[in-house]
Amino acid sequence: MTDTSTRPTLTSSGGAPPAPVARSTSWWARQDITRGFWVKLVLVALVDALGVYGVLAAGAQSQWGIVAFLVVALVAVNVVYFSKRMLPAKYLVPGLLFLLVYQVFVVLYTGYTAFTNYGDGHNSTQADAVEAILVQNETRLPDSPAFPLTVISDGDQLGFAVVDAEGAAQMGTAEEPLHPVEAPIENGHVASVNGWITLSFNDILEQQAEVFALRVPISQDPNDGSLRTPDGSTAYVYGSTMVWDEDTQTITDTARDVVYTADQETGTFTSPIGAQLGTGWKVRVGLDNFTKVFTDSTLRGPFVGVLIWTFAFAILSVATTFGLGLFMAIVLNHPKVRGRKIYRSLLIVPYAFPAFLTALVWQGMLNRDFGFVNQTLLGGAHIPWLTDPWLAKVSVLVVNLWLGFPYMFLICTGALQSIPAELYEAGKIDGAKPWRLFRSLTMPLLLVSTAPLLIASFAFNFNNFNVIYLLTEGGPDDLSAPVDVGATDILITFVYRLAFGGVNRQYGLACAVSILIFAIVASISAITFRKTRALEDLI
Amino acid sequence: MRRSIPVVAATVGLALTLAACAGSNDEPSGDATSAAPASAATLTVWVDDTRSGPVKEVAKVFEKEKGVTVKFVQKDFGDIRDDFISQVPAGQGPDVIVGAHDWLGKLVQNGVVAPIELGDKASDFLPVATQAMSYDGTLYGLPYSVENIALVKNNALVKDATPATFDDLVAQAKAAGTDYSVLIQQDEKTGDPYHMYPLQTSFGSPVFGTDSTGAYDANKLTLDSDQGRAFAAYLAKLGTEGVVNTSISGDVAKEAFLAGKAPYMITGPWNTGDFAKAGLDISIEKVPSAGGQPSQPFVGVQGFFISSKSKNALLANEFVVNYLGTPDVQLALYQAGGRAPALTAALEQISDDPIVAGFAAVGQDGVPMPSIPAMDTVWADWGATEVAIVNQQGDPAALWNQMTASIAGKIAAA
């Protein structure tokens, strides 16, 4: 479709200016139009179509940031791919764009959120909070009648025409309180008012925001309340107990006579005695979230405990998986072992299953009363594998060992096979025993190629959310802790609980802890990478 | 000059795609004009799998009568609340969602839900339903169903009448000689205070006390009471006797009951459909009291909420109040999900169903599940502590006190 429609248009527009015919043939000649060019044209056209659609969609939602990004990205894509130069960019642009969207943006946004109090009760802007508070506190006056409503318009302003309790017609506008009017009534509704146009339901829909926002006072005294309509066909008397004053930035509760002042430090409306309105807004709180982790006594204790266990979990996971993987690799690397291929294939099996599936199966197998481990392997024992704090830690490590050792086995097998056999022969001639050979030959040469992978594995396990969350959900919970935290919670699951857990969602705090996690993992990785360079000097 | 071709190509491409987009944008509105009186309004509704069928049916009628478009987004029920809270402020949220009443505290706190006015219709709904859908005296949602748990009895296994106390019930059930006596589903990590609540309230220990208007008050944590500690001791006893076992998950319990391995199960209407399908002869009863006072299950109400930032507020209200609040829709939703309608007229039409009537009768004694934000703070500690008590991991009263102190601390900090 795109292809066929592109061709004639392009040719005609290319040849449209009548004068430079000769030159235009020379373009074609020089451009070297091949089939590849057309493929490129179609592909880029598709990308452009998608991009323009995105621009229009984002524009319709007034998301100008996204519009700007899409426009820049589209221009970049077209320039890069239709340019004769910029060869490297042709390869890099797709990756770069995805990197920007999925990495850079996420990182920046996390960083930004860490400096705000974003979370439950601080969900949006101050304007939204004010609107929400006013809406929540504008209620239908108790025992007030419902009025059959006709929405009318004189071209400039909207008005309400209603039938009152006595069956008489009344009308009013935002400025003009309700007053009796001579008007015919049909089917219980005012049919028309002289000088006003009666709006049909579809007319109302055209300007439903205005109709919905219209308040018609029912008398000169504003405390009597005003009429408004939720559905365009019935009006009710509403009274508001909260009054917003933009100049003084205060909300006054007229029912209780309390003034709540906007506090931009905390993003809440606060009364002189410290009472707060439930709905607040998002404000920047500086380093509060970071200092809170270390100074708030309810957070500090759990944080330190979780941090220690996270290190233990990550280090032990790497150590056990590497140990078992290496052992298996060495055993199965020995030429005298029969059926090596079968063993090797079998050992890859845990690696081949999706990890989340395996974790869930293990969770079932470790169930105290119905699990396979207790029922079948241990003859009907009732060992609380997942619900005792220490056994749960062991279980998590064992399951992670099951999940992780095939990978280590694979890389160790590869690394072992790349060690030249002559080195071993030379070692044997020098009289080295097997242990000595392993210690002085195998290990150092193995670590040259596997050390970076071990560091990567450490970083991965440091944030190994899946195993913890699917197996124990961080539990068993520490019932005496002042925040939700469990015995197997590592930092990332702890963050998840802060952000999405049962108690108030604290996205800002969770982002701050995420950044701390990043700092820890990054610095450890940087230091160890530097150390492993020493290993490379061996060869 | 060399550059000209790319520039031309790019412009033409852009122009073409722009034209294509403009064309595709025109199409839907063109359809709308041909279908009914013109209106560009589009209502976006989030529903889950269970409710989507009936809601889509009524939406078709709505579209035809009002000449508008209703767009559906199907979501996991569990995701709707949080997605709604995060997307409404960004202006990306829907106009209408289906949800549960106990979300209200969070929805109101985050300012994402708009009050709703039912007018004269309010009295057509069960009082407990509109009460549950209210927060701080303001009604926020149109209720469509009311649900609660009750004691489900397998009449084939026990012929005698159900005893008046829980101890006698357990004794009678054990005498039946089945693997289990009274199944109460649990979770080995998070417990299940919801299913234990009838027993807890029979000791006279609700979670929160109420203020003068009858609304739950987060500052009155009535869990922290002698009655609460008495329940904790009783729970420990049930744990030692093996009546309550934290390994019995919802699935295990359901399978066991289906297989005739237990004469009684405390569960809700979402399971009785399968029991009936399996040919079990069941009846619905009140959970016998364990502590001397009436057992009160939590009543959960589900319904429809309107976004506070809906650009189609009028249309949304019209759809929710005047289309979803009709007996036909409520009955269709009952057929789809098994939950009893919240509209009295709809409920009366199916009241000859003994199961529906049984649950409704038990629900009369029920109390709405608290919807205040503080309730979110309660669940985790409450469940984990009940697990510890059932598994004898400490003195019941001490564990219970630790729990109430922890919950009170978290509420104060929030």
Automatic annotation (TrEMBL), chain A:
SUPFAM superfamilies: MalF N-terminal region-like, MetI-like. GO terms for biological process: maltodextrin transmembrane transport. The keyword Nucleus does not apply. The keyword Transport applies. The chain crosses the membrane at residues 37-58, 64-83, 95-115, 306-330, 342-362, 394-416, 437-460, 507-529. Residues 1-22 are annotated as: Disordered. Residues 1-14 have a biased composition (Polar residues). Pfam families: BPD_transp_1 (PF00528), TM_PBP2_N (PF16296). GO terms for molecular function: ABC-type maltose transporter activity. Residues 307-528 form the ABC transmembrane type-1 domain. One of its GO terms (cellular component) is maltose transport complex. It is found in: Cell membrane. Keywords: Cell membrane, Membrane, Sugar transport, Transmembrane, Transmembrane helix, Transport. It comes from the Bacteria. InterPro entries: MalF_N, MetI-like, MetI-like_sf, TM_PBP2_N. It is a multi-pass membrane protein. Belongs to the binding-protein-dependent transport system permease family. MalFG subfamily. Part of the ABC transporter complex MalEFGK involved in maltose/maltodextrin import. Probably responsible for the translocation of the substrate across the membrane. This is Maltose/maltodextrin transport system permease protein. It comes from Cellulomonas chitinilytica. The lineage of its organism: Bacteria, Bacillati, Actinomycetota, Actinomycetes, Micrococcales.
TrEMBL record, chain B:
Keywords: Signal, Sugar transport, Transport. It comes from the Bacteria. GO terms for cellular component: ATP-binding cassette (ABC) transporter complex, substrate-binding subunit-containing. InterPro entries: Maltose/Cyclodextrin-bd, SBP. GO terms for biological process: maltodextrin transmembrane transport; maltose transport. Pfam families: SBP_bac_8. Residues 1-22 form the signal peptide. GO terms for molecular function: carbohydrate transmembrane transporter activity; maltose binding. Belongs to the bacterial solute-binding protein 1 family. This is Sugar ABC transporter substrate-binding protein. It comes from Cellulomonas chitinilytica. The lineage of its organism: Bacteria, Bacillati, Actinomycetota, Actinomycetes, Micrococcales.
